[in-house]
Design a protein that fits this description.
The chain is of the alpha+beta class. It has 2 helices and 8 strands.
Amino acid sequence: MKKVLLLFFLIPSFVYADEPKYRYWSYGCDMYIYDFDIEHNKYKIYTRIDVEDALFGKYTSYLLTEGKLELVKESIYLLSSEDVEGDMELNFSDPEIVTMQSQKYGYVGLTPCDRESALQLIEDAEEYLENCPKDTIGKCP
């Protein structure tokens, strides 16, 4: 019985024990997914936007931001992109939170997202972006 109880309490540790490159992060997992591909030095940020306007009514639109990651020192990366002004630093030293910090945008902590939900948002965004411009909010066919 003690082994069963120990396993029950350790399950959350096993869930979060994977490397950051295999995890999806956010500060709002239902609207933003940060997909950091450390192995290939790149990242993608998928953003879901629920819109209501007079012309089309209610609909969902998606944005995609992409860029590069550069290892500065152990667990510290610089994020760069055409969409990001100035330096933005990512710190992966804490397995429970990724910190993003920049002079321009300040500081934010990203927490792990549920893998299935994150993959669903990414799939929905990729499908949307097949037919719609990457940087446009609006109703698409």
